[in-house]
Structure to design on (159 residues):
């Protein structure tokens, strides 16, 4: 089974993949989709959709784990994030991939053991868990792998 974790973003969207067999992780990796060079929001959303569909076609995950929305002081930012998240959910639905959501707090607690963990702590734990061959440059990629790991940790108790 392959789980994809998605950290939505309108400029950088992280994705992390876990391939598992039973209760054992066979492979893990992560990267970020960069659409920051597109000039308008609509062009970024189109590029995000196209690139996420390409990732889904390449890896064929069976389930997606997505970070849920959280409150933010910048109203414009939350609306822009909502647009990006909607495009990502559309990509998942168009490929017939079911989705589950986890809050940032649930994800951090599942991976680090502390719902208030910092990005540095999440990055450290992901490195400890998976010993990635190449270290992604963006935290979004690590966050996405943490989101996939959160779902994997939940699934372990259901198998």
């Amino acid at each position: 089974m392959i789980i994809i974790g998605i950290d939505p973003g309108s400029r950088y969207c992280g994705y992390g993949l876990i391939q598992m067999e039973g209760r054992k992780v066979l492979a893990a990796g992560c990267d970020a989709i960069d659409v920051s060079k597109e000039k308008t929001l609509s062009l970024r959303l189109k590029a995000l959709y196209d690139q996420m569909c390409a990732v889904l076609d390449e890896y064929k995950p069976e389930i997606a784990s997505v970070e849920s929305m959280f409150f933010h002081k910048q109203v414009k930012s939350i609306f822009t994030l909502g647009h990006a998240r909607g495009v990502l959910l559309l990509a998942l639905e168009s490929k017939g991939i079911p989705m589950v959501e986890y809050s940032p707090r649930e994800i951090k607690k599942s991976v680090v053991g502390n719902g208030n963990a910092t990005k540095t702590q999440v990055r450290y734990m992901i490195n400890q868990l998976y010993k990635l061959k190449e270290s992604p440059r963006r935290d979004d990629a690590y966050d996405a792998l943490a989101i996939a790991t959160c779902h994997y940790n939940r699934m372990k108790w259901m198998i």
About this structure: The domain at 2-156 is CATH 3.30.420.10 (Nucleotidyltransferase; domain 5).
